[in-house]
Amino acid sequence: MMSVLRQVCKNAEINCKVLLQTKYLSRLQHQCLSLNYSQLGPLIAKRRTPRIQEQYSKIGGGSPIKHWTSIQGQRMVELLDRISPQTAPHKYYVGFRYAPPLAEDSIEEMENDGIERAIAFTQYPQYTCSTTGSSLNGIYKYYAQRDAPTNMLWSVIDRWPTHPGLVEAVADNIKDALQQFSPDVQSDVVILFSAHSLPLKVVERGDTYPSEVAATVQRVMEYLNFSHPYRLVWQSKVGPLTWLAPQTDDAIRGLVTRGRKNLLLVPIAFTSDHIETLYEMDMEYIEELGTEVGANIKRSKSLNDSSTFIEALADVVKSHLVSGKCVSTQLSLRCPSCININCKNMREFFQSYQPLLEESLKEPDPLKRRASQLS
């Protein structure tokens, strides 16, 4: 998530820090799943570890997420300094859920740096309790487990699935990728928007992830004037539970049997390259499965350092600063069947900053505001 702790930002004359917090989507939080699954989780992880290690070795030995997140964060804050000088200078921090730099370490660094205005900016455009929700719960628990108040004024950017800049960046990559097909088959290409799947048990509690991913897909196809047939498919299922369907590989097989062999994979819920694009899409689906079923499969580029995408990130943050809201209307609502008390506490934690945020907007100078509070 983006300080702009890529999640943090300066408001007025307060240094704005963005904490970019991303997390491996395949590592679902036990708190979001059933008890039985959380008990099975360690066994599944132990069995999958050698396979995952092999996959990483085939894409260069490690994940490029931190590389791309850092590039996105740096370019974003440079642009923010230009388009929002009244809140400059801006700084970003990167915080991961399961790999260094961990979010709690980045928050501690922000506290030590004396940051006064922090934005938790998720790098997942579409919200789910398993990713963004889990990360926000982690911020709440960081402070709940420490008997020390924070000097930072927190707010949250928890989702942005239909932002025009995101839509344009994805659509531009699709148009470029279509040029990889020979002219005689370009009109026959089926676009497969592939997103990380989610257990149906999570969806049935009221998680908005499937609808928000679908909203992104709809806006992208509207931008493209519905030039090609398309489907939303799901990848990266693990464990014994029932997940969202159709799975990407099943969709590829099904389309080929129906005579549609020219397919374009589009990573729609990922904002940079990682194992699910470089290995799962490029190697398992395009190279291995494509050869097996005789399909002509291509992939659109990930967003990575797209200038259009960087502009979208900066605009999301700037709009958030202007909004004067600590949390979105959607984040204020828990899933109808939520069973996690941390989800309730997390929302109350971030909403508690609303009066302070409103006060800061009336008097942006922190020194004058403190003097007013003391008088």
TrEMBL record:
Pathway the protein takes part in: Porphyrin-containing compound metabolism; protoheme biosynthesis; protoheme from protoporphyrin-IX: step 1/1
Broad EC category: lyase
Top-rank taxon: Eukaryota
Subcellular localization(s) per the UniProt record: Mitochondrion inner membrane
Gene Ontology CC: mitochondrial inner membrane
GO molecular function: ferrochelatase activity
UniProt catalytic activity: heme b + 2 H(+) = protoporphyrin IX + Fe(2+)
Pfam families: Ferrochelatase
Keywords of this entry: Heme biosynthesis, Iron, Lyase, Membrane, Mitochondrion, Mitochondrion inner membrane, Porphyrin biosynthesis
Primary location recorded for the protein, binned into one broad class: mitochondrion
GO biological process: heme biosynthetic process
EC number: 4.98.1.1
HAMAP family documented for this protein: Ferrochelatase
Protein function: Catalyzes the ferrous insertion into protoporphyrin IX.
Homology family: Belongs to the ferrochelatase family.
Name of this chain's protein: Ferrochelatase
Organism of derivation: Octopus vulgaris (Common octopus)
